[in-house]
Amino acid sequence: MKKSVKKWTSIALSAAMVMAMAGCGGSADTQPAQTQAAQGEAQAEADGADSNSAEGGEAAAGAYEVTEQVQISFATQDVGTTAYVYASTMANLFTDAFPQGSIIDVTTTSPGGVGSPVILENGQCDITISNGAPAKWASETGILDNPPTENVRGIAGGLDKAILNVLFTQDFVDKTGITTVEELVEQKYPVRIAVKSSGAFGELACNKVLEVLGVSYEDIQAWGGSVTQTGSDAIVSLLKDGKADMTIDHIAPGQSATSELCMTADMYFPQLSDDTLEKLTHEGFDYTAIPAGTWTGQETEIKTVGSPQVILVSADLDDAVVYTLTKALCENKDVLVNASAALEAFDPETAWEPIKLGAPIHPGAEAYYREMGYMK
Prior knowledge:
By secondary structure, this protein is α/β, with parallel strands linked by helices. It has helices spanning 11-24, 34-46, 82-97, 116-121, 132-140, 170-176, 181-187, 201-212, 217-222, 232-240, 256-264, 274-281, 319-330, 333-339, 354-357, 363-372, and strands at residues 71-75, 103-107, 127-131, 152-156, 163-169, 192-196, 226-230, 246-251, 267-268, 286-290, 302-306, 309-314.
């Protein structure tokens, strides 16, 4: 991805660039309107603003203008997935925001929210969709046996609503009298857990719940219990057939497999303790709730946490390009919602928050949020 020109560091450099470009025409992929940029810099200095970083306040007029074509690779999941719908809609917005002839190439090369930061780090794309918590884990400690990411940045999080969902079978509750995960751990009960396969976000979320409670899969097996890792359909079958007692997943409200399970089997909806929920927020999850009636048989609201989807970009993308991407995303929420009602949860005023981004914010995105007054 070739670069678009960033803000210049001083009035002198701005003037020099204007003269140089006038003489030779320039060769960079993207060129700002030089006169506007220089005027913007002069005004910024007059106001005492730091024009070299997003922390300097509002972006100078024209300083983030992209005037030449760009070409960006946007990696998402297979056609028909929710992520593909999101990416296709956003790609159209992004294309319209750049000069005519620009290309946002949507590819179906993403492994999903957990692996997305890895392919971005490896230079396999310029933009991708992940979730806030995996982006945090990838950045801080590494994920899927990879070292910590250094080249991954966030531009907008909290795109949709996502929930950590815990279910017991009603038979399990009737037989044991256990109604919470905390009780289960305290009693070291030999529970049978059905959970998604290794590498899936649902499985990692299950692992995090147990981890903050001080136990592991090995502990459960040592108690005489079991952990079966498999796909969504098989989890439903195991719970319906009495071959598993519980599951923990990270899903969207109304997810089809869980809806089917709750309509065809008697399930119990445990509430995680406030202490457990707080510990999970330190692991990158954000507070949310499961409204009453989300699942058949669920009569009360359940406090939980979740990690909505986030747009990640390469740190190598120029500030002006990322500023334009962020602006297009945040100022066209109606288009996003028309494509998917789940995106109604997106709030541009809070999309920059660390708990939503997971990864460090890109300076170009930060410039937009500060200009709008969302970041102080």
